[in-house]
Amino acid sequence: MLSKRVIPCLDVRNGRLTKGIKFEGNVDIGDPVETAKKYYEEGADEIVFYDITASHEARGIFLDVVEKVASQIFIPFSVGGGINTVDDMRDVLLAGAEKVSVNSGAVKNPDIISEGAARFGAQCVVLGMDVKRVDVSDEIPSGFEIVIHGGRKYMGLDAVEWAKTGEALGAGEICLNSIDADGVKTGYDIELTRIISEAVTIPVIASGGAGSPQHMVEAVTKGRASAALIASIVHYGDYTIPQLKQYMKDEGVQIRSIW
C-alpha cells in the first residue's frame, strides 16, 4: 500500500499568500516563500502553488515567486495558474517546480496534456480540476461540472468524463478541488472524491474543505484519495503538519515519516 500524502496548498495573488471561501473573498495572509519553507521544515510531503488569478487575468504565472519558493524547499513542488502552452510548462519546470498543474488551459486545449506528457513525462503533468455540484442532466450525468477561470466559467463538461479524458491524454495525477467545499472547513466532498478516484487509475489529490484531521482521514479512506490537500487549517494555525500526520497515523492511515 502506498503511503498517503499531506500536501499544503499555497494560493497566491499578486505575489502574496491568500485564502478565500468558495473561491471568493480572498484576503492576504502572508508571504508564500516563508510559509512554504515553514511547511517543508514541518514535514510536508509536497507543496502545491497556485497563481489563482493568472488565467482570469490572461497573463503568465509569477515565475519569480516560483523560483523563490523552489529555492527554500526540497520536496516535490507542483505549480499551476496561467499555464496554457508547453513553453509555459517548461518555464515553470526551469523555475524549480517538479510538477506542472494544468487546469483552465487544459480544458480549452486538451492537447497540452499529451504534449506536456510526451515532452516532460507524465509524472510532471497534474490535471487540476475545479468542480461544482449541479443538477444531474444529460450533459452532466454525474452532477459534477468543470468550472474554469477560478470558478467563474461553467464549461458544460462532466467532471468524471473529463478525469477519464485527462488520464487517457497522459496526465500522471489529478488534483481535485471542490468549489462548494473550498475554505468552508466542514470536510472534503467525499462523494466527488470517491467517484473520481474510482473512475481513474492515476493518483487523485482531494482538495477543498479540510477543517480537521478526521476530514483528511475520510478523504483517503472513504474518498479513496492518494493525498489530502490542506490550506486553512494550517494557514490559520489550527493544526501543525506533524499534528495532522500523527492523527492520521493513529487512525491507521499509512503516511510518510513524521519529522
Brief summary:
The protein has 259 residues and is α/β, with parallel strands linked by helices. It is 33% helix and 27% strand.
CATH topology: TIM Barrel
The rough form would be described as globular
- CATH homologous superfamily, by name? Aldolase class I
Main sheet attributes: strand count, strand direction, barrel closure: 8 strands, parallel, barrel
Which second-level CATH architecture applies? Alpha-Beta Barrel
Ranges where pLDDT stays below 50 over 5 or more residues in a row are none
Give the termini distance in whole angstroms: 21 Å
Structural class designation:
alpha/beta
Topology, please?
Layout: E1 5-13, E2 16-21, E3 24-30, H1 32-42, E4 47-51, H2 63-70, E5 77-80, H3 86-94, E6 99-102, H4 104-108, H5 111-120, E7 125-133, E8 144-148, E9 153-158, H6 159-169, E10 173-178, H7 190-199, E11 204-207, H8 213-220, E12 227-230, H9 232-235, H10 241-250
Parallel strand pairs: 1-4, 1-12, 4-5, 5-6, 6-7, 7-10, 10-11, 11-12
Antiparallel strand pairs: 1-2, 2-3, 7-8, 8-9
Helix pairs in contact: 8-10
What does this structure look like?
It is a single chain. The protein is built from ten helices and twelve strands. The protein is of the alpha/beta class. The chain has one domain (5-251): Alpha-Beta Barrel (TIM Barrel), CATH 3.20.20.70. Strands 1-4-5-6-7-10-11-12 form an eight-stranded parallel beta barrel, surrounded by seven helices. A hairpin with a 4-residue loop joins strand 8 (144-148) and strand 9 (153-158). Helix 8 packs across helix 10 (241-250). The protein is globular, with a radius of gyration of 17 Å. The mean pLDDT is 91.
